[in-house]
Amino acid sequence: MEANLTGKPHVVNPFCLRRTTKYFDIWLNLEELLPIAIDCFVHNMMLQTNPENGMVSNMPGVDIRISGFGTSSAVEFVDKSRVAPGMYFYLLVENLVKWGFRRDVNILGAPYDYRKAPEELGEYYLHLRKLIEKAYVDTGNKRVVMVGHSLGNIIALHLFTRIVDQTWKDKYIKAFITIGAPWAGSTKALKGFTSGHNFDAPNIFLPPMKLRPGQRTYTSLASLFPTRMAWRDDEVLATVGSTNYTLADMPAFFTRLEYEMAWKQVLRLGTLDKTLPAPGVRVYCIFGVGLPTTSRLTWTNKSFPHEQPKEIRGEGSQYAIISC
């Protein structure tokens, strides 16, 4: 993701720029996560919510675009410096190349704005559809195999069930490979809203509380909230002190958190009761089995909500209870 600051009306500290002359790398850019710089990064990446319809947009004076759409490099590393912490699909692409595939010919990437819920990606689906159709033609009318990871699977499912019809899928799609799909949501979303989530990096290097203000504005977290597919209404999802909170108790939880906007977004997106409609294409699921997976978060009265919770783990695919 790249950003251009066109004249921010205010900044969070004097070291933050109000204006830039060109686009710069913002995600992932490890330099943006350094002390002081991280405050500017978080504020630049925040979304503002329209109170009338709940839709989100970039902060005033911030223009963010997705770079490298259609190229393999855009998904091989999320950091253009190509250092290990930013490695993503690189090893998969390297092996495909060894088997005769070619970067930017029949290995293509479709990066997206991870801050937004699938329902809010708008024109992205038009670009994705055109990319698939072009790949089909450029490779001699060969159908496309789509590979998704994590939230990318939810986005692909939205394409298959809300954007294109069965005739289109039959013509252009050979298969859909899902990797670690959080079909039923994840406790990581609740953790992000409450205490911040730092992608399991050491807290001393990437403090979750620094990231929390931005994450609270991301509707993608609301779309990944735990659902009734994996949690019963009477099943404890979070505990603060001696008080247990189930899915049915979440309104009270967010009132206690003093951030009810997150719950409003969960309700607006219909996340709790979402189902798993058939995509209408051949599906192959890749997922972890028997891995420690967080099913419940606990805070003491003193640690809530500004400290990281204790995570009670069951079995799953590490990040999601249900991945296939």
UniProtKB/TrEMBL annotation:
Coiled coil: none annotated. Gene3D superfamilies: alpha/beta hydrolase. One of its GO terms (biological process) is lipid metabolic process. The keyword Transferase applies. It comes from the Eukaryota. Keywords: Acyltransferase, Transferase. The keyword Aminoacyl-tRNA synthetase does not apply. One of its GO terms (molecular function) is O-acyltransferase activity. This is Lecithin:cholesterol acyltransferase. The lineage of its organism: Eukaryota, Metazoa, Ecdysozoa, Nematoda, Chromadorea.
